[in-house]
Amino acid sequence: RACREFDEFVEILEGCGAEVVFFPSASQLSLDSIYVRDASVVCKIGVILGNMGKAARAGEPDAQAAAFQDWGVPVLGRISDPGRLEGGDVAWLDQRTIVVGRGYRTNDAGIQQLRALLADSVDDFLEVPLPHWRGPGDVFHLMSILSPVSENLLLVYSPLLPVPFREQLLERGFGLVEVPDGEFETMGTNVLALGPGRCLMLEGNPRTRTSLERAGIEVVEYRGREISEAGCGGPTCLTRPIERR
Questions:
Q1: Which alpha helices (H) appear in the chain, and where do they start and end?
Q2: d(CA 188, CA 167)
Q3: pTM exceeds cut of 0.85
Q4: CA distance 193 to 198
Q5: Rounded distance, CA 126 to CA 145, Å?
Q6: Number of other CB atoms surrounding residue 183 within 10 Å
Q7: Is there a contact between 150 and 217 (Cβ–Cβ < 8 Å)?
């Protein structure tokens, strides 16, 4: 069932104009590795390899590094001990503004290293403290509560957004599409921008879909009971965009 869902997921991406490439299989990795977002961060000049906050995923950055080398994608550096940083805690607000969530999967040392690696690539580096929520064992990243859907529009779950950060987003001119309480648990906030005004989301979040459409966003849905709901990873988690045109 998971394989069928994944094949359908890839078909949707390709049907929307994306070129899809696959990381090779690696026997030392766990099933968590299907959530390829977390092991790396991409900027305009290359890739920064993460250092996983979940010990069982420690081998993923090295596995991705080998593929990036084969594809000719430059690796700018990597986060090293004692730093921890996962890609799900990193989002670009525009080409020169990056926001990083400080939580249980991404620590202060990891953020400091990322800041140094991106020193010449960003104008604003925003650090956001994440809530405890359900504790260290839970799958919770910055992108659990925030997803960019267009240049000036963000999908958010405001009850878990720190007040200063939410105010800062509004001051920067972003419109906020709110995910209702009943659809946060079903990953309503986790959507993947496919292009200007178009996004991919997990089916089963009708109120969030309606809010996005009212904001002028075209929504494409996919089935993800096995590949998303079972592992708490939505379409952003299942993809690592390398290049956007």
A1: 2-15, 60-71, 108-117, 163-171, 181-184, 206-214
A2: 22
A3: yes
A4: 6
A5: 16
A6: 19
A7: yes
Radius of gyration of the chain (CA): 17
Residue with tokens 């140094």: 116
Distance CA 145, CA 157 (A): 5
Helix ranges (DSSP H) in 83-195: 108-117, 163-171, 181-184
The answer to whether the CB of 184 falls within 8 A of the CB of 140 is no
Q: How many Å apart are CA 209 and CA 218, to the nearest integer? A: 9
Apex 228 CA angle, 149 and 190, nearest 5:
20
Amino acid at 40: S
The per-residue pLDDT string of the chain (245 residues; one tens digit each, 9 = 90 and over) reads: 999 999 999 999 999 999 999 999 888 899 999 999 999 999 999 999 999 999 999 999 999 999 999 999 999 999 999 999 999 999 999 999 999 999 999 999 999 999 999 998 999 999 999 999 999 988 899 999 999 999 999 999 999 999 999 999 999 999 999 999 999 999 999 999 999 899 999 999 999 999 999 999 999 999 999 999 999 999 999 999 999 87
Residue with tokens 């430059």: 74
Structure tokens at 170: 């509004």
Residue type, 37: R
